[in-house]
Amino acid sequence: MCCTYAGTELTGTYITSRGDHAVVKLENGYNIGVPAASIVCTGAAPAVTPAVSPVEQNPDLPGVAIISTGGTIASRIDYRTGAVTSQFSADDILRAIPGLAEIASFRAHQLATILSENMHSGLWQDIARCIYDEIRRGAEGVIVTHGTDTMSFSAAAVSFMLETPVPVIFVGSQRSADRPSSDNVMNALCSAQAAISNLGEVAVVMHASTSDDCCWIHRGTRVRKMHTSRRNAFRSIGMSPIGTVEYPSLEVSLGPAAVLRGSTEPALMDRLDDRVGLLSFYPGMDASVISAYEGFHGLVISGTGLGHVSADSIRTLSGLIRDGTNVVMTSQCLNGRVCDRVYDTGRDLLAAGVIEGEDMLPEAALMKLMWVLGTTDDPDEVTRLMQTNLRGELGRCSPHGL
Hints:
By secondary structure, the protein is α/β, with parallel strands linked by helices.
């Protein structure tokens, strides 16, 4: 479409109208908003949808399933509308990231199209069930595309619900496909290579640095997003990454802590109790904040230091525990473990019946407690399972000696 605006002839694509303004994408890729009444169109080409042929896949390559929940990892700009759209079929994804077709043969499923803050227990169960079905169908690896904001929660949830003999890789993109600095192509290629590697557990694959040189493989129960927008936002907490994928060579190296392919048979244990909460303690917090969790089956506290809360909070937690709520204490510190035997506050928490969460990340403890309470409601068994290392969520020892 050719338009004249303020005496200047512009060529671009009309996208949409917002009030009395029109949004036009110029040939240089920028969008501009101009008063619709000031545009004089001198011609317009009819929209044409080009014929698209299927992407040829090599059936001799390893078979990998892609499960899409939303996010921008496999998205592209649609210059007809100006929007960034997610791609869900295998052809769409392979067309957006052509190098994938040289790594594996793919089939894809769309489970959801949501922002990751809208994740919930039902979707976590759907993801685990879909992964399990794909493994039983013979998938040699599974990739889950996911928004980055809550990806660590989902990776931990699936880690507890699923025993997997093959790699299950969560991957996302910090920057959308229409930006020159997008990380979607590199992350997708590295995740695909990790999905056919010798790994045998749930992991997150994301940029290791701000450069396009390497992706880290993080254990699904020990990873956290540490920055709002940097491409290397994800870090393993309390341990080193369990592997790396070099770029552009796509060479995978697994560390000694990685669980290897074939170490277990596929198993699905997908019951979750969603009457479980997560609360971060802060100085001066009114104990009534804790009372809001009355009737919950479980509560994870993110406490200070070694795992502490105020004296008023202890009294309220004691009442919750007496009424049947299982309370697990974790720490707001990113390294080290909870130890409630050092100070009187900790001893009072133990006397009240609080379960020490060792060095579990609060989000991993939340997912584990939901899973444990979906399995048993016996308090002694809940305590035993929460303090048993099931999916690498508990470290052997603190890196700082505690």
